[in-house]
Structure formats: C-alpha cells, structure tokens
Amino acid sequence: MPYQGEWYIPCRVINARLWGKAAVEDFDKHTALCVELLSQAQIQAPSASVHMLLDVEEAESLPPLYLMFARAMPVLRFKNRGVMFVITRNRTIKSIIELTAHVMNFSILMFNSRSEAMSALEATLLKEDLQTNK
Q1: What secondary structure does DSSP assign to 11-63, as a single string?
Q2: What's the pLDDT tens digit per position in 26-45?
Q3: 61-to-44, 90, 127, 130 alpha-carbon distances in Å
Q4: Domains of the chain by start residue, with CATH
Q5: DSSP 75
Q6: Collapsing DSSP states into helix, strand and coil, what is residue 133?
C-alpha cells in the first residue's frame, strides 16, 4: 500500500494519504512522519495544535488492530495533537480507525469526501485563530 505524507500547512496541518492494501511498513512510515512533524511543530509553534487530514478513501484494507495500536504508541506522548479528519466511505475502515482512535485517545472526525473534511478543518482553524487572537 503506498503512503504519502507532508505538511499541508506547516506546524498546523499534516496531510497524509494511504491507498491500496495496507502493510505494517506503511504505518511505520506514517508514525515516523507524525513523530517528525509533531516534534518540529512543538519547537517551532509550541502553542499550536497540529491537525491531520488522513485520506484513506482508496485504501482497500488495514493491518490487524493490535498492530495499529502498537504503531500508534509513539505519537501518544505529543500534547500538540489536534483533530484527525479522516476521509473514507468504507464502513469497515471507518470502524477500524474509530476503534483505534478510541483506544489510543485520538480525537477524530469522519467524512465521506475531502471537501467535507476541508470545510470542517477550515472551521476548526478559524475558531482556533479567533481564540488565540482574543
């Protein structure tokens, strides 16, 4: 399963995409990217929450839950984790991600399309900016 990830907005939003059949190595890449970018944001923008757009719309399958839990562990130490905006219509993948997020205490919102997720992300960022500038 190919994986791609990068800053969408530096120190504010990570954009990640998984497609095809998931392999454990893809989640290792994802976790390494999250740790790298969350660490960078902690230094460069210590008061900002870092949100994530996670597009799994074209993912066909995910690894077993116990492997996903283990792979997510290094990200738990970061206090600057914001909301994960997940994009997928696949009910099985939604259930797996929701269960993983619940067990690992990640805040997530699920969307059927990228445009819905982007609207929610923009509203979240605007609200945060308004609260910061009070």
Answers
A1: TTEEEEEEEEE--HHHHHHHHHHHHHHHHHHHHH-TT--EEEEEEEEEEEE--
A2: 888 988 999 999 999 999 99
A3: 35, 10, 34, 39
A4: 3-132 (3.30.750.24)
A5: G
A6: coil
